[in-house]
Amino acid sequence: MSRIERERTGSLPETRLWFNVCSLTPRGALLGPEGHLPMRYSIVLALAIACCATGPLALAQEEAATADVKAILAEANAALQAKNFNKAYELASKVADANPKQAGARFIAGAAALNLRQVEPADRYLREAYALKPDMPWLSLWMGQLAMLEGDSAVREGKDDKALEYYNEAVGYFDAESKIRVGNPGPLTNKAQALSKANRLPESLATYEELIKLNPASPDAYLAAAEVHIQGGQTDKAIETVKRVPTTDKAAASRAITRWGDALFQQGLMDVVVPVMEYAHQLDPAYTEPCGKLVAAYLQLGHPPEAWERLTEFFSHNPPPEQQVAVGDAALSFLRRRGNPLEALPPDEDAIVLPWLDNLARPKVPAAARQARIDAAVPVLVQVGADGKIVSAQVIPNSSGASNEELGLNAAALDTVNRSRFKPGKRNGKAEAFPVGVMIEFKPS
């Protein structure tokens, strides 16, 4: 699948800028807090603070401007820095329309329009500014951003050839800016993204390697390169690249990789999510987020043995309530689809057979639930010993947990499980202790 096809189908986020929009260094390099470059920022959002650097630079080019014009542009630039894009656009566009040679006004108007997602006026003013003063500081970077946004619009309209033209145009602008700003990661980052969108994957990967050399301690370029490998269908190379992320601070590396893996999870790329989250979990076993995502991923892939084992480990670290509910909802959804283990499941590649219900006791519906004619299902994680006896059982938290608790259904579910009989799980034909998920249903009589 090409990058353009991915953009249209939504299998990848629309745009990923691997720099934060919250700060600018004095040199104008776009960097995030504490050196981190978070994912999933759209181009338009990234432009918001970049205006702070471009406005004064644009004004400096207009030495011939009258005092009144300079005052208006100073006010427009201040509005831009304050993210009052409507005011900045109104002021700067009036000056630009009244002064055909005013490149600075066009720069500010174009920047404001782009932040307002008004592509047509942004195109007009930025291209006019470029025609007047192509060497204006940072203008090439903004021209590249404009071309990227126009490429995205062309993709949504089904104009693939036009989109490629825009993306390749963006590459040219970012390449020019990177040669001016040698050692600055901002233009190189944008260039790598534009190359990826243009489906020029080897060049994109080479550019990310340049970024890695600039800042080898940061995980961002490694993870961006891994995403390009995924785009090219090279899952193994993607995982190899993730494992290149520096692990001097294992906890920080685990969190960065988990954030990236969560984006893959949202896209449904479970075949990549599992090894990525396993690696993040290995780096910091006490960090519960990757373990919780592994439970959901294994369930979606239809691998319950791994899921229930990971769920047991997940609970052992006392994860935050919101994580417990999210994982519990995934477990309940799986049990609704697959039902309870009423008979031995076929062995998987590890020759594992989960414990199965030899006899499921009849649930005793609490009076309050019976009167309310409640139709509910309570998921329970059961630890079954090698002798088939229940070692422990606990209700899996989920979105309905509070109401189920109030109606006495959680206690009734545990009572039902404890009155049921199980056959032990097996590994390679030998009985062994295993966890298993069971769903206890309560129906109105």
Short overview:
This protein is mainly α and 445 residues long. It has 20 helices and eight strands. The chain folds into three domains: 3-242, Tetratricopeptide repeat domain (Serine Threonine Protein Phosphatase 5, Tetratricopeptide repeat); 247-338, Tetratricopeptide repeat domain (Serine Threonine Protein Phosphatase 5, Tetratricopeptide repeat), CATH 1.25.40.10; 341-445, 2-Layer Sandwich (TolA/TonB C-terminal domain), CATH 3.30.2420.
What keywords describe this structure?
445 residues; mainly alpha; Serine Threonine Protein Phosphatase 5, Tetratricopeptide repeat; TolA/TonB C-terminal domain; 3 domains; 20 helices; 8 strands; 9% strand; elongated
Strand content: 5-15%
| Helix and strand run | HHHHHHHHHHHHHHHHHEEHEEHHEEEE
- The strand line-up of the biggest sheet is 1-6-7
Shape: elongated
Mean pLDDT figure: 85
- Name of the CATH class of the largest domain: Mainly Alpha
Number of domains: 3
Total strands = 8
Write the SSE topology:
Blueprint lengths: L2 H7 L33 H18 L6 H15 L3 H14 L4 H13 L3 H14 L6 H18 L3 H21 L4 H13 L3 H14 L5 H12 L3 H8 L7 H18 L2 H14 L4 H14 L2 H13 L4 H18 L13 E2 L2 E4 L7 H5 L4 E9 L5 E6 L5 H6 L2 H10 L2 E3 L1 E3 L2 E3 L1 E9 L3
Antiparallel strand pairs: 1-6, 2-5, 3-4, 3-8, 6-7
Helix pairs in contact: 2-3, 2-5, 2-7, 3-4, 3-5, 4-5, 5-6, 6-7, 7-8, 8-9, 9-10, 10-11, 11-12, 12-14, 13-14, 13-15, 14-15, 15-16, 15-17
